[in-house]
Amino acid sequence: MIKLLKLEYYKNLNYRPFKVFTVLYFAILIALLFIGLVDINILGNPINLKEQGIYNFPEIWNFTTWIVALLKIFLGLIIVFSICQEFSNRMFKQNTIDGLSRKEFITSKLLTISVFTIVSTLIVFVITLFLGYNYSTVTDPSKVFEEIFFIGNYFVKLFTFFCFLMFLSILLRKSMFVFLGFFVYWVIEGILVALEVFQKVNNTQELERMKILKEHFFVTHLLPLESMSSLIPNPMMRLKMAKMMGLKYEFTYPAESMIACLVWCGIFIFGSYWILRKRDW
Question: Nearest CA to 124 among 155, 145, 147, 146?
Fold first, then answer.
């Protein structure tokens, strides 16, 4: 394992896009976590998210993980560039000639993904605790860790997303094709979700459409991107202004989505290995 990590380190050490996007990602991630400390102008009205309660326990776990999860595409770029350069620069073929097996290649990429995911999760965890203890109006121990499961959900969401990009990178081999393929899949999945929503709304007499979305999904919520999205719901309903408007936040732990993400991880990993074994590189 140490040998594979060192190999990945030396491969990416002199690869400029890898270093640039890594620094950029973690800099923006940390900056986003402190976004609540500045006023944001929305339609000319200044809004301070800290005063709206984003740093209050236990809601802060939902807010911070949801906000930084929006940045996962930046870290995804690093993963894609790292893998695609293996094929464009013929490093993969040379490594196999030098004795690196396909299983070791997949393991090395999974180790890289794991390191980035763990480091990102730890940063979010530490800064969330720091912000919560400094700005939360509630610091009771029972409330502080009540929703800490969002940290675990964030880890799984990130890891699943990176495994998906690894699979696309090995399948398509060129970064441009990977991003194009991801975009096409994102559009297709979005259309499927919209069609199912439309069908369920038309086939029911209920008027509460939000309940329809939650109760009548049988297929699309198990698709990769949708299952990842369900792990961390949009927390904007938890803002004080949303509560004043009578909006309610409802959340049930997405056990099905968690299982779906773990299954997709397995599919993407074994699918990547299968492609490496079957293709003549």
Answer: 155
pLDDT band at residue 218 under the 50/70/90 scheme: low
Q: Which residues of 147-168 are buried (b: 16+ CB within 10 A; e: fewer)?
A: bebbbebbbbbbbbbbbbbbbb
Q: How many CB atoms lie within 10 A of CB 103?
A: 11
What is residue 256's predicted lDDT score, i.e. its pLDDT? 93
Measured CA to CA, the distance from residue 164 to residue 180 in angstroms comes to 14
Residue 193: is its pLDDT beyond 60? Answer: yes
Q: Show the tokens assigned to 245.
A: 């408007």
**pLDDT one-digit tens code per residue, 40-70:** 766 666 777 778 888 899 999 999 999 999 8
User: According to DSSP H, which parts of 50-174 are helical?
Assistant: 59-69, 72-88, 91-97, 102-135, 141-144, 149-172
Is 90 exceeded by the pLDDT of residue 118? Answer: yes
The three-class DSSP label of residue 14 is coil
Mean pLDDT, the chain, whole residue set: 84
Got the DSSP string for 156-223?
HHHHHHHHHHHHHHHHH-SHHHHHHHHHHHHHHHHHHHHHHHHHHHHT-----HHHHHHHS-SSGGGS
